From TrEMBL:
Substrate binds at residues 28-31, 84-87, 97-100, 124. It holds the Pfam family Rib_5-P_isom_A. PANTHER family: RIBOSE-5-PHOSPHATE ISOMERASE 3, CHLOROPLASTIC-RELATED. This is Ribose-5-phosphate isomerase A. The active site is at 106 (proton acceptor). It comes from Microbaculum marinisediminis.
């Protein structure tokens, strides 16, 4: 079975967590897109009555296309459930996110939700986080100084970071939905995600980093032969 089919199956399983009346956070990425499509289908058929807060402009567009009723986090600041993808997750449901560049809004929306459920194909489950370069969103002002501070903070923790400024179209740096830049920080492994998260959060100029710790309560993982739920079903 292809990874995309696994993503679709994980999304379909997560739809069983949704009940009418829920206020939902809608994640970003190819796995979350399957969830938004499935949600839209159920809404159009009259099986579900929900509202969603998109975590990116891309998800906003997709949700409109699929007929998912939308609200904003300002109108609806407390959500019941966020369903989102991940770039990596470990056995303690610690995540690396931001491959799609939406980590800031994704983290704000997840933090405003009573529950966050990750949906992923089995390749995303790792023994130890860090093979996927950690996305770090920074303010454009002083971005080179911020990158040096990130490098120093990681080295203090015994890591050997390699930072790449993410590029977008036409050889220009990628800009997030909030107009910021992203450094992808190649660390090979992150032995102590909590310590790195704390260190990065303390750097002026870092808006947010892609380590999601203590936010995800369950993950639906679709493999070639089975779908399993990690954490609280
Ligand atoms: O964090 C994300 C976007 O910022 C995505 O959830 C993550 O990149 C996974 O994407 P996909 O479902 O396409 O594999």
């Amino acid at each position: 079975m292809s990874a995309d089919n696994q993503k679709r199956l994980a999304a379909e399983r997560a739809l069983t967590f949704v009940t009418s009346g829920m206020k939902l956070g809608l994640g970003t990425g190819s796995t979350a897109a399957h969830f938004v499509a499935g949600l839209g289908e159920r809404v159009r058929k009259g099986h579900l009555d929900v509202v969603g807060v998109p975590t990116s402009e891309a998800t906003h567009k997709l949700a409109v296309q699929h007929g998912v009723p939308l609200t904003t986090l300002d109108e609806t600041p407390e959500l019941d459930l966020t369903v989102d993808g991940a770039d990596e997750l470990d056995g303690s449901l610690r995540l690396v996110k931001g491959g799609g560049g939406a980590l800031l809004r994704e983290k704000i929306v997840a933090a405003a939700s009573a529950r966050m459920v990750v949906i992923a194909d089995a390749s995303k489950v790792v023994e130890r986080l860090g093979a996927f370069p950690l996305p770090i969103e920074v303010i454009p002002f002083g971005q080179r100084a911020t990158a040096i501070a990130i490098d120093k903070a990681a080295r203090k923790l015994g890591l050997d970071p390699v930072l790449h400024l993410r590029m977008g179209a036409a050889d220009a740096p990628f800009r997030t939905d909030s107009g910021n830049l992203i450094y992808d920080c190649d660390l090979s492994a992150i032995p102590d995600p909590e310590a790195l998260a704390d260190a990065l959060s303390g750097i002026p100029g870092v808006v947010e980093h892609g380590l999601f710790i203590g936010l995800c309560s369950a993950a639906v993982i679709a493999g070639a032969d089975e779908i399993r739920v990690m954490g609280k079903d």
